[in-house]
């Protein structure tokens, strides 16, 4: 039997992509990422209003996305905006939702 397709000699190669998928594996986080694709940058207050969730809940989800390198922050004075930080996400989300363009 040919087992080359399942080469487990370097499973470390799978850690980063698996962590990326874990970070995306919640409906609220997927919604945040998709919203950032459409809006380009956004602050927590706007997301909280759109999602109708407590600010602390939105912040917790953003922290998970930030820890995974999916989003980053841009500071403008006192305002902190979130932006997508990983271009792979911009390729994945339209595939997951069956959309050609998430920027509408």
TrEMBL record:
Residues 9-104 form the HTH arsR-type domain. It holds the Pfam family HTH_20. The keyword 4Fe-4S does not apply. CDD domains: HTH_ARSR. Keywords: DNA-binding, Transcription, Transcription regulation. PROSITE patterns: HTH_ARSR_2 (PS50987). InterPro entries: ArsR-like_HTH, HTH_ArsR_DNA-bd_dom, Metal_resp_trans_reg, WH-like_DNA-bd_sf, WH_DNA-bd_sf. It comes from the Bacteria. The keyword NADP does not apply. This is ArsR family transcriptional regulator. It comes from Paenibacillus pabuli.
């Amino acid at each position: 039997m040919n087992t080359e397709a399942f080469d487990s000699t370097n499973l470390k190669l799978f850690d980063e992509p698996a962590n990326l998928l874990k970070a995306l594996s919640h409906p609220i986080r997927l919604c945040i990422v998709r919203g950032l694709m459409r809006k380009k940058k956004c602050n927590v207050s706007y997301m909280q209003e759109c999602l109708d969730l407590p600010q602390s809940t939105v912040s917790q989800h953003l922290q998970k996305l930030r820890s995974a390198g999916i989003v980053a922050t841009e500071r403008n004075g006192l305002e902190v905006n979130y932006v997508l930080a990983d271009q792979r996400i911009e390729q994945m989300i339209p595939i997951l939702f069956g959309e050609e363009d998430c920027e509408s």
